[in-house]
Amino acid sequence: MQPDALIPRKFFDRPATEVGPELLGCVLSHRTADGVVAVRITEVEAYLGQSDPASHAYRGPTARTEVMFGRPGHVYVYFTYGMHYCVNLVCQPEGTASAVLLRAGRVLAGEELARARRPSSRQDLDLASGPARLCQALAIGRAQNGTDACAGTSALQVRSSQRSYDEKICQGPRVGISSAAEEPWRYWIEGDRTVSPYRAHVPRRREARGK
């Protein structure tokens, strides 16, 4: 693919473990009434649907995961911890759930707008470092769930980029999950400072009775 070309649907018509590492270096952009923010994708995680206990689609289609069972190249957005949104790109043919979670990015365009949406960020590297921050910086929420990221008319798109030859792609366990935690399905660009540090899942402590 040529740099800055809209990524075609066939790119996503594969397992998430193949799509994930190839998304690194690509550019995710979202156009709103306020302007455009674009980020270079630096960290992702793959989730393999009904064969993956950590996937939202593990137990089959639901109202929440319907988009994951749809056509590849669409956007799956979910709400977590009662306060944050996370964005995924759907992979594999229709009827087979698989998706890549976008974990981190480096803002390439619209920094001023991203800072206005993320006023708590201490530096520009923090603007889209982490899945919730990425969604905040790009104003991605429930309204974007089901968006076709492969459509030329879409406000939310993914475009190809060209990684330099000296950039190394790393692979390791996914972050903060309790099921299938050992699977090395997280991918990131080595040395990029927007990539989140690895944290294993820590079970929540139950409150002692009587307190």
Taken from the alpha-carbon principal axes, the silhouette is: globular
Distance between the termini: 59 Å
Tally of strands: 8
Radius of gyration: 17 Å
Helix run count: 4
Secondary-structure-based class equals alpha+beta
CATH fold descriptor: 3-methyladenine DNA Glycosylase, Chain A
Largest sheet: 8 strands, antiparallel
CATH superfamily (homologous) name: Methylpurine-DNA glycosylase (MPG)
Task: Indicate the mean pLDDT.
Answer: 91
Roughly what fraction of the amino acids lie in strands?
25-35%
In CATH terms, what is the architecture? Answer: Roll
Uncertain runs are: 206-211
One letter per element, helices H and strands E, the order comes to: HHEEEEEHHEEE
| Estimated helix fraction | 10-25%
Report the CATH C-level class. Answer: Alpha Beta
Number of domains: 1
Tell me what the structure shows:
This protein is of the alpha+beta class. It has one domain (9-189): Methylpurine-DNA glycosylase (MPG) (3-methyladenine DNA Glycosylase, Chain A, Roll). It has four helices and eight strands; from the N terminus they run ααβββββααβββ. Strands 1, 2, 3, 4, 5, 6, 7 and 8 form an eight-stranded antiparallel sheet that branches. A hairpin with an 8-residue loop joins strand 4 (84-90) and strand 5 (99-109). It is globular, with a radius of gyration of 17 Å.
